[in-house]
Design brief:
By secondary structure, this protein is an all-alpha fold. It has one domain: Up-down Bundle (Ferritin). Helix content is about 70%, strand content about 0%. The chain has five helices and no strands. The radius of gyration is 18 Å and the shape is elongated.
Length: about 180
């Protein structure tokens, strides 16, 4: 028997979709960067993709642990073309702000239903979103600072490469 109120249950399932959509969007951003000289930005976006999948799995396991049914929905095709690294990061920030808004809605619903276990989970996500938005905003600020300066862009790309993916995706071992 589910220990999650029906309205909250629906929103938690929707959040799995939101997180997986974000993961898929970041994967598309990484793929776009792979076709540019910016391998570090590609790695940064790949790490983001993996982190979003991990977030989706937190919601997945939370629902399972509370006896609630996981209901997965379709994920739309992500945007695949961008004009610059700055546009990619601005798109990323917009996405993170949307995720933050959905976490706020979840938290408000959890408060309405006095679901303290959900609020506890969502507190972690609220802190995480502050960190996510700050990291992206910092990169946007730095990209705006360097503009089209190739040396500045390459320096930022090298710094972005320091963020490593959660899993090794560099090996393409046999099928």
């Amino acid at each position: 028997m589910s220990k999650v109120a029906p309205e909250l249950h629906s929103l938690l399932n929707a959040q799995i979709n939101n997180e997986m959509t974000a993961s898929y969007n970041y994967l598309a951003m990484s793929a776009w960067f792979e076709n540019t000289p910016y391998g570090g930005f590609a790695q940064w976006m790949l790490a983001q993709s993996q982190e979003e999948t991990t977030h989706a799995m937190k919601f997945y396991h939370f629902l399972i642990d509370r006896g609630a049914k996981v209901e997965l929905a379709a994920i739309s095709t992500p945007r695949a073309d961008f004009s610059s690294p700055l546009e990619v990061f601005e798109t990323s920030l917009n996405q993170e702000e949307q995720v933050t808004t959905s976490i706020h809605q979840l938290y408000n619903m959890a408060e309405t239903h006095r679901d303290h276990e959900s609020k506890n989970l969502l507190n972690w996500f609220l802190d995480e979103q502050v960190e996510e938005e700050k990291a992206v905003q910092d990169m946007i600020d730095r990209l705006r600072l360097v503009g089209d300066n190739p040396l500045g862009l390459l320096q930022l790309d090298q710094e972005a490469a320091q963020r490593s993916p959660l899993i090794d995706t560099t090996t393409h071992e046999g099928n």
